[in-house]
């Protein structure tokens, strides 16, 4: 988890992981605490700003009212994983969105796998690790085959085919 430097810890810290090196199809994951992710978005931006630079846009690959797949039950494999691309002045990150209702063992494993964090050997045979790997693989495949992300209001581009983003939008902006 990421905590503010030099200050008191928030009673409900943002549940976020980001890889040390950016540039993969999935650079990390965010596990919001509620269905309305807009409530946590300002805190997410505040945490990512030192890493990415001033945030210039946030792009998502889902419709406004579409919920992320329920990872607790079979069937998530047939649904689009939610990925948010956060673009900053220095870098950008593709974050896999984990449904707020996901069981904690699975959500924590997805957070670790998405940011390429170390997993103990004893945990590698557990169902949470195996499922997390499948979820991450599905999201990576989706990012590789996807032609676009849907711009949000912060992107300042009209919706529709003219607003399609490059296939690897995040990588195109990395320096």
Fold and architecture overview:
The protein has 175 residues and is of the alpha+beta class. The protein contains four helices and six strands. Strands 1-2-5-4-3-6 form a six-stranded mixed β-sheet. Strand 4 (83-88) and strand 5 form a beta hairpin.
Q: What is the number of independent domains?
A: 1
What percent of the residues sit in helical stretches (DSSP H or I)? 25-40%
Stretches where pLDDT falls below 50 for ≥5 residues? 1-6, 147-168, 171-175
Give the H and E element order.
EEHEEEHHEH
Helical run tally = 4
Helix/strand class: alpha+beta
How are the strands of the largest sheet arranged? Answer: 1-2-5-4-3-6
Instruction: Estimate the strand proportion.
Output: 5-15%
What characterizes the major β-sheet? 6 strands, mixed
**Shape type:** globular
Structural Rg? 16 Å
């Amino acid at each position: 988890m990421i905590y503010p430097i030099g200050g008191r810890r928030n009673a409900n810290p943002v549940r976020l992981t980001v890889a040390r090196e950016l540039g993969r199809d999935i650079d990390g994951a965010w596990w919001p605490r509620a269905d309305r992710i807009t409530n946590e978005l300002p805190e997410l931006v505040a945490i990512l700003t030192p890493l990415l630079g001033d945030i210039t846009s946030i792009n998502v690959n889902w419709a406004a009212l579409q919920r992320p797949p329920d990872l607790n039950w079979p069937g998530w494999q047939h649904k689009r994983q939610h990925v948010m691309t956060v673009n900053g002045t220095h870098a950008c990150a593709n974050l896999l969105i984990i449904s707020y209702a996901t069981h904690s063992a699975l959500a924590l494993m997805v957070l670790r796998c998405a940011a390429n964090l170390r997993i103990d050997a004893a945990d590698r045979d557990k169902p949470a690790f195996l499922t997390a790997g499948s979820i991450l693989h599905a999201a990576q495949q989706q990012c590789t085959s996807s032609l676009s992300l849907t711009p949000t209001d912060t992107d300042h581009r009209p919706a529709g085919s003219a607003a399609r983003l490059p296939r690897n939008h995040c990588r195109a902006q990395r320096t």
